[in-house]
Amino acid sequence: MNQQPLETVPYVAHEKKYPREIQGRFQSLRAVTVVLVLLVYYGLPWLNWQGHQAVLFDLPQRQFYIFHFIFWPQDFYYLTWLLIIAALSLFLITAIAGRLWCGYTCPQTVWTEVFLWVERCIEGNYRRQKRLDEGPWSGEKILKKTAKQFVWVFIALWTGFTFIGYFTPIRSLFSQPVGSWELFWGFFYSLATYGNAGFLREQVCQYMCPYARFQSAMFDRDTWVIAYNKVRGEPRKRRESMLAQGDCIDCQLCVQVCPTGIDIRNGLQYECIGCAACIDACDQVMEKIDRPKGLIAYTSEATMEIADQNGAEDKFLQWKSLLRPRVLIYTFIWLILVVGFLISMALRNPLAFDILRDRNALYQISEPGFVDNVYTLKIMNKDHRAYSIQVDVLEPQAVLMGLPETLFVAAGDVYNLVVRIRLPEQAIRQNPQSLKFQVSRSMDALDALKVVEETLFWSSSPTIHNTINVRDSK
Amino acid sequence: MEKHTKVWMRTLGVVLWPSFLVASIGTMVFFACFDPRDLVQVATWPMALDRRWGYSLGFFLFWMLTLMASGLTAYLLES
User: I want to staple A457 with a disulfide (CB 3.0 to 4.6 A). Which of A87, A138, A402, A435 is the partner?
Assistant: First the structure.
């Protein structure tokens, strides 16, 4: 891969690219994925599920709603787990087929495509755009530029608005006054959208994206990349009169359609985002000049080498390379993580509690011969309906004080219960000693649940007088 | 002259974006473990912040730190 370290690349002033639009099977596929990403992004906040917004990251309440599930800060490891799965998926896909992510689903690509499309609708094709930019400020230019900016700003603002809709119920944004932070983040996101998709575009991929740089570490000789078949194409034939040589007629179409402005015939470059526009462009030309398609195609280094030797491509080998160790190992780990995640989600306990010790006093002696410890139980009902909760202490001689007559915890709520545990001195074996609480819900056998958590019970018992750092330990 | 400004802009982008990414991850991990409403209660200086303020200020604190680290690195590399 032709990837030079930054400092050796001579600085070339950035010039605006005017990618020429092209039709073809890969561009149709891209259009589908782009529309899907947009539909999901703009549509998801409007979707309701069981009486709440289907996807809502309610930060003020510290609860994430994702369809059927409600996630709590305590479930953070699920998010970490998901991120690891996502990262590994990216590794796997990159190892198999290169930068599919970049070309088809990366938000940078998707929103750049949207902004490009607007530009094309208003200013015309790439030639007209260039002429307009280079020409003087005429009435037409002012009108077109204003119209374009107007639409761009509208899209950016709508994107920012949708963004806050993931954190504050989107429908309430119309009916209630919008908070100052919501407003700030909405504009922040709008500005980022406008800047990234309207101006920076491929520069984000080239200079700012970490993935674009380290993806080459996941590449190997069998990775499918977009490549130009040099053996077939060279030497390029410029004019009809020239002697029949390679298939490449040097029409420059592959360069014109490239959103990052590279020439794929110079080999794979780190600027290539894998959008396959050059494949579509070249296939069209090959069809016109009556040559087989695929002068530029998804292929791998290994496939090309074999094709060099045998004079023909071996599609079977290209598929067989999917069974190489790197792919198998990634797939294996990926499967374990995904299956583990699904099992863990299915077995997720909707009832949970944390025990916090009283910060002020380690223990109290309210009556001679008895030791008291005070705890706060944070009982979480992560389910979709309210439950009657029972709290027990699993210590034969312990007395549990402070329980209310009935204890109901509403759906998705936390109940802070302060309890006092009284233990006679003769029941104290150790200082501190283990103490177990059990929280259970509903008598109904079907959804009965029990959770046991352990904490420490402190006393004045002289047997072990370890009072150092007593405050810090649980 | 213009060339100089452009290099400077690019460095700015390279510093801003990765520090933003890392600060976002830091904010997520940090606030998954700590509730800003609890934190203000044990703060050295009296603070009255709700969670929105807590998250936002926390994010900018993280971003400021990562920005300074990235910025210094970029500065040292260039000078």
Answer: A435
Q: What tokens does A103 get?
A: 């070309």
Residue written as token pair 């598929």: A319
Give the pTM.
0.81
* Most B-contacting residue of A181, A187, A202 (CB-CB within 10 A), to test interface: A181
Interface test with B, best of A108, A208, A360, A472 (most B CBs within 10 A): A208
Phi, psi of A439 (to 5 degrees): -115, 130
Is B69 in CB contact (< 8 Å) with chain A?
Answer: no
Considering chain A, what percentage of its residues have pLDDT values greater than 90? 38
The answer to whether residue A286 scores a pLDDT higher than 80 is: yes
* Confidence band of A467 (pLDDT split at 50, 70, 90): very low
The ipTM assigned to this model is 0.86
Render A7-67 in DSSP notation, one character per residue. GGSPP-------PPP--SHHHHHHHHHHHHHHHHHHHGGG-EETTEESEEEETTTTEEEET
Secondary structure in 3-state letters for A330-377:
HHHHHHHHHHHHHHHHHCCCCEEEEEEECCCCCCECCCCCEEEEEEEE
- Kindly state whether A181 is in contact with chain B, defined as any CB-CB distance less than 8 angstroms: yes
